[in-house]
Amino acid sequence: MVESALQFSHTLLAEVLTDDDHVVDATMGNGNDTVFLANAVQPHGKVYAFDVQDQALDKTKQRLVEQGLVEQTKLILDGHENLKSYLTENEPIKAGIFNLGYLPKSDKNLITMPATTKQALETLLSHLVSKGRVLLVSYYGHTGGKEELNMLNHYCQSLPQEEYNVLKYQFINQKNEPPILFCIEKK
Ligand SMILES: C[S@@+](CC[C@H](N)C(=O)[O-])C[C@H]1O[C@@H](n2cnc3c(N)ncnc32)[C@H](O)[C@@H]1O
């Protein structure tokens, strides 16, 4: 079966990650991506995971403890737009993932926003190593979602071909606005 946007995001990450990479989960939520990344870069790598909600950190920490993955993970209660303050100058980052929108079964008004998503993405790209990848899963069915998708379409299309490969992965015959995946790979 063709992989969903979420499944394919992990496949594209798994292809490039090794056991000492530094990576970023820009939207921790329930910790699915954080756990995946922590597994992929153990034992020598490091995951920086961001969220603005306490409940995301609590849930994610619990899952990491259960799986013995706390060591290589830094959980950060802050907006991903402040990523720059948490990385050292010129710190090489191999990959990052954004799962945009709101946390399921939580406050639907607390959503990721175009300006702050763009700011985080710019910082991430400035640290991305050659062959590194950034994955963005865009949900756009909620209020404010289409504005963020528009920003991503524009931003991704304008990245120079000499420096980046950019992929857009989308099911075009599905109902209910399924998520769209973007992959930015540094050449
Ligand atoms: C779709 S959920 C993420 C799902 C998550 N990746 C998972 O595996 O469960 C989006 C998350 O982004 C968080 N968020 C919203 N604005 C943010 C920001 N500026 N910085 C970091 N996280 C943010 C929300 O609190 C929410 O938990």
Automatic annotation (TrEMBL):
InterPro entries in the record: MnmM_MeTrfase, SAM-dependent_MTases_sf
Sequence intervals crossing the membrane: none
Pfam annotation, one family: rRNA_methylase
Lineage: superkingdom: Bacteria
Organism: Tetragenococcus osmophilus
Gene3D superfamilies recorded: Vaccinia Virus protein VP39
Protein name: 16S rRNA (Cytosine(1402)-N(4))-methyltransferase
